[in-house]
Amino acid sequence: MSIREIEELFAKDLHELGCLIKAEKIVTFSINAHINYSNVCETKCKICAYHRKKQFTLSVDEVVSEALKAVKAGATELHIVGSHNPELGIEYFEEIFRRISSQCSATIKALTAAEVHYYAKKEKMSVREFLSRLKSAGLKILAGGGAEILVDSVRKEICPRKCNSEEWLRVMRIAHENGIKSNATMLFGHVESKRHRAIHLYKLRKLQEKTGGFLAFIPLPFHPEETEYSFKPSPVDILKTIAVSRLVLSNFRAIKAYWVMLGLELAEIALSYGANDLDGTVGYERIAHSAGAKTPVGLPAEDLIRLIRNANKIPAERDAFFNILRVYEDREVRICE
Ligand code: SF4
Q1: Which end of the chain is more exposed for a tag (fewer CB within 10 A), N or C?
Q2: Is the CB of 45 under 6 A from ligand 1?
Q3: CA angle 185, 191, 193 (to 5 degrees)
Q4: What's the CA-to-centroid distance between 51 and ligand 1, angstroms?
Q5: pLDDT > 70: what percent of the chain?
Q6: How far, in Å, from the CA of 43 to the mean position of ligand 1?
Q7: Is the CB of residue 117 below 6 angstroms from any atom belonging to ligand 1?
Q8: 324, 326, 332, 337: CA torsion to nearest 10
Q9: Global pTM?
Q10: CATH code matching the domain that covers 3-335, chosen among 3.30.420.40, 3.20.20.70, 3.40.50.300, 3.40.50.720
């Protein structure tokens, strides 16, 4: 699929896009926890509200304790991301990952490609060496953030000090080559055009063809509160973007309706437009809520199951690698071995 063909998909109306999508019956979610270790950030992106909030940095003990508390409550996936904090380095992350993985079997999904690029550079290490040390400490999956829009003219406007698009893709390629899976995001609905979104999706599809290392794609609608912008994508634009993502990224296992940023109603509708995963129970999330997300800070699994059933789909709990653990068929629960 060419960039031009992807642009043409964006020009279709929502109904037409809906008709092109092969509906999946099963929608997955995980029992997970989002842990944000710090918001102290020297990159200061214009799109970011998170770094403008009261500054905090969790100690290693605090991150480990939040993680173990979440695991005790059932979490199988720990999503640990933060900022570009000049006071932190590889040893902080190594200790966190080592201590968590020695005490539980939950999958550590942590750091975006932008964070990896920043901290490796700060430590004067190659990305390969940096990732290899974190893998030995227990890192299994990279988080998908920091991608924003993978077009440098857009990045120069919204996040001029963050890694450029080639650097972001390079970190992901090296991670995949070294056995670390990852997700990928796209933050849309700010200064970018539909062509920019098309280029972003095209680059991800191409990298996935080479490495096969991406698990899920997460389209993130921009929330402008406390940022330098006032743009906000409409619900129709959000649903169309999810539908186009599903059609273009047919080589990704999952397209997430990230309910934290979509809101619960739109997340439910998105399940009819190509989204086949709801992320998870999430727990205490700080980043999207800094930018004005009005959703609850966490949801019990029962609420996710109800939401999926309301969309006339079959809920299934998955692990961080998208292996199905339990299918909630009718009112029965089937445990997958
Ligand atoms: S988006 Fe990330 S890198 Fe940019 S200012 Fe916010 S925390 Fe820092």
Answers
A1: C
A2: yes
A3: 80
A4: 6
A5: 93
A6: 6
A7: no
A8: 90
A9: 0.94
A10: 3.20.20.70
Contacts of 53 (CB under 8 A, 6+ apart): 39, 226, 286, 290
137 contact partners, CB below 8 Å, separation of at least 6: 93, 94, 95, 97, 98, 101
Is residue 63 within 8 A of residue 85, CB to CB? The reply is no
pLDDT exceeds 80 at position 169 = yes
* CA–CA distance, 180 with 166 (Å, rounded to integer): 19
The residue whose CA has the least distance to atom 1 of ligand 1 is 48
What's the pLDDT tens digit per position in 14-36?
Answer: 999 999 998 889 999 999 999 99
H or E segment at 254? Answer: strand 254-255
Q: Look up residue 305 and give its two tokens.
A: 């199951």
Domain boundaries, the chain: 3-335
